[in-house]
């Protein structure tokens, strides 16, 4: 769908500031539509500058109410009208005032009442909202409908005064509270003057079965909070006075209710507030479950790491007691492989999310491998590129593969003097490529990795193909021997 800029490019004097303000309005105007029981369309005048009469208007946004049936089954975004075609839109633009008390007009099978609201930014009318309601549904409004409409009129007036949408609302409307979940109207003293049936139900869940009208909201909410009076509850009471834009939660054994406070302003004066309620009991329960599961999973990784270290220590002790050098070497290789897996679990036990910062693991793998090398002081490490975060399902076999390749390079690829071990990582494409190089004696003539009897290379090839879904090749020239590992980037 086209953006506001695309609709008005070179056809309107709107600046980036104006367009940003219109985006803020569109982000919050489901509230306006629901309170009005009306479809809302945002029209931008098409003109050279703000002093010129427009040649017409283009519809840049459209919202349907969730509290009533829409009058527009098809979107009107992108539709254009000429100046003079819709008199109420022209009137709102010219007067910079809300146009109300208009006569209903037929629209298909409906009788529709259209009202228009100018959108002002720094004293300039940058757009016009047309509000469309079914006139037949307005003849005998309920108390709920009357309160909703009065609140809507206050908010539309705030649009013309530039105080709605609320500046710096930030994440207050994420997720956006809905009128239908529960609405409370406060007077200037923070006393409830009206509570919708769903708002009353929300209080019933918290254990308050009496009427809430005529009661100071902050005091009532504080009395229902789970703990005894403390700083937290005092902040709840202060936030629900209606004096400022706030979002707080009240929790007790009955559930958790979110309160979003929206002050109503007229000129320089506060005339009251509305409070939107949302039952977030299930959301908070699931969040607590996720936190508990996350802690449990990290504890499991920590225990697996400890168990692997215990197994590694036992194998190391056994290796020291064996006189056969071949058997001792095999056990030491097993210790090295177990240590590689333990490093991944150690990283996961210290990570708040389900991913592995593999560059940290690689640092540990290299350090551990060098500590086991008898010529570590003669080695120079050259590393380029980074992995970033990887899925644990990839990290564990990758750690084993890299451990084997580094160990193979250290064991068979050392030059007589000043050896260089190169580790190059390229993770910027659809595949991740890892190259481990050495400047040693090179590969034997006719070498084929698939036919190599080396257990470490067999392990590497199996893990690469089966666990990483990748490929491994070893190439050698008169300068370097390279192990080239390529596998899909699943980030």
TrEMBL record:
Pfam families: GAF_PdtaS (PF12282), HATPase_c (PF02518), HisKA_2 (PF07568)
UniProt keyword terms in alphabetical order: ATP-binding, Kinase, Nucleotide-binding, Phosphoprotein, Transferase
GO molecular function, one term: ATP binding
Record's catalysed reaction(s): ATP + protein L-histidine = ADP + protein N-phospho-L-histidine
EC number(s) per entry: 2.7.13.3
Keyword Nucleotide-binding: yes
Domain Histidine kinase/HSP90-like ATPase as annotated: residue spans: 393-491
InterPro entries: H_kinase_PdtaS_GAF_sf, HATPase_C_sf, HATPase_dom, PdtaS_GAF, Sig_transdc_His_kin_sub2_dim/P
PANTHER family: ETHYLENE RESPONSE SENSOR PROTEIN (PTHR41523:SF8), TWO-COMPONENT SYSTEM SENSOR PROTEIN (PTHR41523)
UniProt name for this protein: histidine kinase
Biological source species: Candidatus Planktophila versatilis
Upper taxonomic lineage: Bacteria, Bacillati, Actinomycetota, Actinomycetes, Candidatus Nanopelagicales
């Amino acid at each position: 769908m086209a953006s506001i800029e695309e609709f008005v490019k070179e056809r309107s004097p709107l600046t980036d500031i104006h367009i940003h303000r219109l985006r803020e309005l569109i982000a919050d105007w489901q509230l306006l539509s629901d309170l009005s029981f009306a479809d809302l369309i945002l029209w931008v005048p098409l003109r050279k500058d703000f002093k010129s009469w427009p040649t017409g208007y283009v519809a840049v946004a459209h919202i349907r109410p969730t509290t009533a049936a829409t009058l527009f089954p098809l979107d009107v975004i992108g539709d254009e009208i000429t100046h003079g075609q819709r008199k109420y839109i022209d009137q709102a633009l010219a007067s910079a005032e809300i146009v109300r008390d208009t006569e209903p007009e037929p629209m298909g099978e409906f009788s529709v009442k259209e009202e228009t609201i100018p959108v002002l930014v720094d004293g300039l009318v940058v757009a016009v909202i047309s509000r469309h309601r079914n006139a037949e549904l307005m003849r005998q409004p309920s108390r709920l409908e009357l309160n909703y409409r009065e609140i809507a009129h206050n908010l539309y007036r705030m649009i013309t005064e530039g105080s709605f949408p609320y500046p710096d609302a930030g994440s207050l409307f994420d997720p956006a509270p809905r009128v239908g979940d529960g609405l409370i109207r406060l007077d200037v003293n923070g006393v409830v003057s009206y509570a919708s049936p769903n708002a009353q139900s929300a209080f019933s869940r918290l254990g308050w079965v009496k009427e809430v009208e005529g009661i100071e909201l902050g005091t009532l909410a504080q009395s229902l909070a789970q703990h005894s009076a403390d700083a937290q509850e005092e902040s709840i009471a202060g936030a629900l006075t209606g004096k400022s834009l706030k979002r707080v939660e009240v929790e007790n054994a009955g559930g958790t209710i979110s309160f979003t406070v929206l002050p109503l302003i007229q000129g320089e004066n506060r005339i009251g507030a509305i409070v939107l309620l949302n039952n977030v009991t299930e959301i908070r329960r699931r969040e607590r479950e996720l936190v508990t599961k996350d802690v449990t999973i990290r504890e499991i990784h920590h225990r697996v790491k400890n168990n692997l270290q215990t197994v590694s220590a036992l194998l190391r002790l056994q290796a020291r007691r064996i006189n056969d050098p071949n058997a001792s070497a095999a056990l030491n290789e097993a210790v090295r492989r177990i240590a590689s897996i333990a490093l991944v679990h150690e990283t996961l036990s210290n990570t708040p999310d389900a991913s592995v910062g593999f560059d940290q693991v690689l640092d540990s793998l290299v350090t551990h491998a060098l500590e086991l090398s008898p010529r570590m002081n003669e080695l120079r490490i050259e590393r380029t590129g980074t992995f970033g975060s990887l899925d644990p399902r990839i990290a564990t076999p990758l750690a084993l593969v890299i451990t084997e390749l580094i160990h193979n390079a250290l064991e068979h690829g050392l030059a007589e003097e000043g050896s260089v071990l190169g580790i190059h990582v390229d993770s910027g494409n659809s595949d991740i490529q890892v190259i481990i190089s050495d400047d040693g004696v090179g590969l034997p003539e006719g070498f084929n990795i698939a036919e190599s009897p080396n257990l470490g290379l067999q392990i590497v090839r199996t893990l690469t193909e089966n666990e990483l879904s990748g490929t491994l090749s070893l190439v050698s020239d008169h300068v370097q021997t390279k192990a080239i590992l390529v596998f899909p980037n699943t980030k």
